[in-house]
């Protein structure tokens, strides 16, 4: 797993390195500029040599400072470079000013308005060094420029060339206009124009930032490349701050997923999934099959009497047990071998759903609550929060989240006015603290948090994009995956992170045309790829 930083964390790491005497701010800026130029030629080798033209747009802070370094280095590599500044050169911070002066020895710096007033793009490469992690408010003056950039990225692809008027666009650290902590744009009144820039390639430094993976961030960055600028690992700083760091969930290590060679089926747990009544049983079966495929030793579907025949006709390896209402569930849970419970998929929002959920929670077993088990508590979420415990995982999508945590959802949906804006990471952490359990807040940027503040993002974006995952029943399979992992003894946070990661891998393995039934069936191939 890698860590995703906030702007304040990045500044703290940078500050610690400068104070320790290991590096100067000017050296970091030089390395940042070098990293951008390296990334440009790695991405587009054809831009080197020949009569290539680059335009570098520099802003009033250190992001602009990186831009002046990029301009100088591009010129050294043979590009014809024009530089435009947004803001007042006299007010640039010291390192940016030093690089402005260095560039000015060889080239001109014109006001940005001169560029935006001109016709066409006039370059093969456009470098956006207007704002990076320091942006903290809307930038309405630039809306028209942003709008044109979006058009360039969306409408024309990267078949660039100044003779055709189509530049490749590279963003330094962030496409300008994005809040680096939340990935949100800062809206302004002129809604006709865009609020943030777009890029084909975004080059960031040291580690990715949260905003590259949240909200509009992932949509606007194009592709993110992270360049090392020689900052050390900062072990001490990390030790003090690990809980506040957000992780990006990465490839699983097969060792902690492997089953014991000599394990009995009960060693791998017994998951109980509750089914809805007749006519709405498919969702629970999807969850149950997911739990079994992911490695629970046994999975039992608990079905009300009315749906026994329907379920029996559709189950083989998953076992079936009649469970009628809360009383029936209490009796079944006397068997302590049921070590994980899954409620919600297709459960219905009838009167007894609430009683079933409360009974399951009182049994104090690892429990996943999804779908109807959550929406049933829309009118009285505090009743649910009162009983959720540390071995629970709740898996709301946006609508379910809003019903359970309306005030948090409102803050998250509010337009960003000042930075750092309230992010999906903030919202999920706050929800987990309130619920007292792990919250998995779904989306292409799924955020998972526990009540202690640990937090991670499972990104189905960039090269892990899996748009086919937005299909009926896919959430039910995820609930099943997590339940199966809980049955196998994974901690709630580990189960949620692992289940979410595998869920996306399964979707990517199958590809377009995916329906929910296909997801769990990809697990064997995904496991093989992992070397299991
Ligand atoms: N940290 C590190 O380790 C390293 C950082 N590096 C680089 O520094 C970047 C961060 O630099 P930064 O902090 O100077 O902020 P930046 O993004 O340039 O913007 C701030 C400026 O914009 C201004 N401003 C803000 N909003 C505005 C608006 N709407 N409209 C107009 N103006 C607005 C704001 O003005 P103020 O709010 O102060 O009035 C201030 O002048 C980072 O992204 C990376 O590229 C690298 O060199 C490597 C090491
Ligand atoms: K930028």
Automatic annotation (TrEMBL):
The lineage of its organism: Bacteria, Pseudomonadati, Pseudomonadota, Alphaproteobacteria, Rhodobacterales. It comes from the Bacteria. This is Bifunctional NAD(P)H-hydrate repair enzyme. Residues 248-530 form the YjeF C-terminal domain. Belongs to the NnrE/AIBP family. In the C-terminal section; belongs to the NnrD/CARKD family. Homotetramer. Its EC number is 4.2.1.136, 5.1.99.6. Coiled coil: none annotated. It comes from Parasedimentitalea maritima. Its cofactor is Mg(2+); K(+). Pfam families: Carb_kinase (PF01256), YjeF_N (PF03853). It catalyses: (6R)-NADHX = (6S)-NADHX; (6S)-NADHX + ADP = AMP + phosphate + NADH + H(+); (6R)-NADPHX = (6S)-NADPHX; (6S)-NADPHX + ADP = AMP + phosphate + NADPH + H(+). NCBIfam families: yjeF_cterm, yjeF_nterm. The keyword Chaperone does not apply. (6S)-NADPHX binds at residues 62-66, 132-138, 146, 173, 283, 346, 397, 476. InterPro entries: Carbohydrate_kinase_pred_CS (IPR017953), CARKD (IPR000631), Nnr (IPR030677), Ribokinase-like (IPR029056), YjeF_N_dom (IPR004443), YjeF_N_dom_sf (IPR036652). K(+) binds at residues 63, 128, 176. The gene is nnrE. Keywords: ATP-binding, Isomerase, Lyase, Metal-binding, Multifunctional enzyme, NAD, NADP, Nucleotide-binding, Potassium. Bifunctional enzyme that catalyzes the epimerization of the S- and R-forms of NAD(P)HX and the dehydration of the S-form of NAD(P)HX at the expense of ADP, which is converted to AMP. This allows the repair of both epimers of NAD(P)HX, a damaged form of NAD(P)H that is a result of enzymatic or heat-dependent hydration. AMP binds at residues 442-446, 475. Binds 1 potassium ion per subunit.
């Amino acid at each position: 797993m890698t860590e995703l930083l906030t702007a304040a964390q990045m500044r703290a790491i940078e500050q610690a390195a400068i104070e320790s005497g290991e590096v100067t701010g000017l050296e970091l800026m030089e390395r940042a500029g070098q990293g951008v130029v390296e990334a440009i030629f790695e991405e587009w080798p054809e831009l080197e040599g020949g009569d290539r033209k680059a335009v570098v747009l520099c802003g009033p802070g250190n992001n602009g400072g990186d831009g002046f370094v990029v301009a100088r280095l591009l010129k050294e590599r043979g590009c014809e470079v024009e530089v435009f500044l947004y803001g007042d050169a006299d007010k640039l911070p010291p390192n940016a000013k030093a690089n402005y002066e260095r560039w000015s020895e060889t080239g001109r710096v014109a006001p940005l308005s001169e560029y935006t007033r001109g016709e066409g793009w006039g370059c093969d490469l456009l470098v956006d060094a207007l704002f990076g992690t320091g942006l903290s408010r809307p930038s309405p003056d630039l809306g028209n420029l942003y709008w044109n950039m979006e058009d360039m990225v969306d409408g024309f692809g990267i078949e660039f060339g100044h003779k055709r008027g189509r530049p490749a666009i590279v963003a330094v650290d962030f496409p300008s206009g994005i809040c680096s902590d939340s990935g949100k744009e800062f809206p302004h009144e002129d809604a006709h124009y865009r609020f943030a820039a777009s890029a084909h390639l975004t080059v960031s430094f040291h580690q990715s930032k949260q905003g590259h993976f949240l909200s509009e961030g992932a949509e606007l960055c194009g592709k993110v490349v992270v360049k090392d600028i020689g900052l050390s690992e900062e072990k001490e700083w990390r030790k003090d701050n690990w809980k506040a760091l957000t992780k990006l969930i990465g490839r699983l290590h097969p060792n902690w997923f492997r089953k014991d060679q000599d394990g009995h089926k009960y060693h791998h747990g017994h998951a109980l999934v509750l089914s809805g009544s007749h006519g709405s049983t498919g969702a629970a079966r999807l969850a149950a099959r997911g739990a079994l495929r992911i490695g629970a030793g046994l999975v039992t579907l608990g079905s009300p009497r009315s749906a026994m025949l329907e379920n029996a006709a559709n189950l083989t390896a998953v076992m079936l047990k009649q469970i009628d209402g809360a009383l029936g569930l209490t009796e079944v849970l006397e068997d302590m071998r049921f070590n994980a419970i899954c409620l919600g998929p297709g459960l219905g929002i009838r009167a007894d759903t609430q009683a079933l959920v409360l009974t399951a929670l009182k049994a104090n077993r690892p429990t996943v609550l999804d779908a109807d088990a959550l929406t049933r508590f829309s009118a009285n979420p505090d009743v649910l929060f009162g009983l959720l415990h540390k071995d629970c995982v709740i898996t709301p999508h946006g609508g379910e989240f809003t019903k359970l945590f309306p005030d948090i959802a409102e803050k998250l949906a509010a337009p960003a006015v000042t930075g750092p804006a309230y992010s999906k990471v903030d919202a999920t952490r706050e929800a987990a603290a309130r619920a007292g359990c792990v919250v998995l807040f779904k989306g292409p940027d799924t955020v998972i948090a526990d009540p202690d503040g640990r937090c991670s993002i499972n990104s189905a974006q960039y090269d892990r994009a899996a748009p086919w995952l937005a299909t009926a029943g896919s959430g039910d399979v995820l609930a099943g995956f997590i339940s199966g992992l809980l049955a196998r003894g994974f901690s709630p946070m580990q189960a949620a992170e692992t289940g979410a990661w595998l869920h996306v891998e399964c979707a990517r393995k199958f590809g377009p045309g995916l329906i929910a039934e296909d997801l769990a069936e990809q697990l064997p191939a995904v496991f093989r790829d992992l070397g299991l």
